[in-house]
Amino acid sequence: MNRRYVTVDVFTERPFGGNPLAVVLDAEGLTPAQMQSIATEFNYSETTFVLPARELDHTAHVRIFTPKIEVPFAGHPNVGTAVVLAREWEANGRAPVDRFVFEEAAGLVSMRLLRDGGVVVGAELTAPERLSIGSSVSVNDAAACLSLASSDITAAVHPPQVLSVGLPFLVVEVTSREALRRSKPDLSAHERVLPPIGTDAIHAYVRGPGLGELHARNFAPLDATIEDPATGSATAAMIALLASLQPERDMEFSWRVKQGVDMGRSSLLLGRTEKRDGIVTAVHVAGHAVPIMRGELQVSP
Q: How far is CA 97 from the centre of its chain?
């Protein structure tokens, strides 16, 4: 049976920017091994597989695979899948809706659809988990992972530490935009530092000149992605931490995160954090997605 797929570039408004994603629409009946093989064939940072929802009031069951493993949650796969699925449904005569709910291994992911002239052009996700903070590493180890000097890393606000709202990353603040530009993954340091603390990726960022503006890069060579152009799940964890460290006990705050610039795939991620009684209660990440290709996969039974 042939399986339909659509590819989109996510967290961008122009083709060939942002983060590419493949969405396999007719995934029912595929085995996990077949899904993994298809994801490896596309060789994007992630590929999603859309299955019937297990509960009537949910939209779909979505599985997410990197070229090497299945992951419980990710950012740009949710945004891209929501845009593809909404456009497919409406092209087939289904009534427009404002929200989707995806069933994923990390939990339920609520999606708010974004429209321009009635056409779905993007989506905003709500992270399935509240912020959890894991292990910290030394400034020296963080610098080694990024091929930087220790002086390029700052721990003034928080140490280099593992953060998650559904998928864990080592999140590191660097001292300057120039240090971020010079960052590149050191595979031997990744192999030594990351698996023992429960992650395979590092998310480096620096504060921009504007309020709530951040610049970021994400490296995951252990998961066959040397650099990710836009990482919504890491962005969500990062802004959740930064919101939690702000002195206000009750606040809503907006963030603009630029990623992918240094690898030629400029991306823009729009974040929102909600904080009540000193606790970050919700984290949202939004962006646009642009359809690029569609076709069929020939999958043997």
A: 23
Residue in this structure with the two tokens 């969405």, named with its chain if needed: 23
Question: Is residue 282 within 8 Å of 236, Cβ to Cβ?
Answer: no
Active site residues: 46
Domains and CATH numbers, the chain: 2-127+288-298 (3.10.310.10), 132-283 (3.10.310.10)
- Write out the DSSP string of 70-99: EES--HHHHHHHHHHHHHHHHHTTPPP-SE
Question: Can you tell me the distance from the alpha carbon of 39 to that of 23, in angstroms, rounded to the nearest whole number?
Answer: 10
The answer to whether residue 301 scores a pLDDT higher than 80 is no
pTM for the complete prediction? 0.96
Mean pLDDT of the 82-105 span: 96
Asked if 286 contacts 230 with a C-beta cutoff of 8 angstroms, the reply is no
Answer for the pair 10, 46: CB distance below 8 angstroms, yes or no.
no
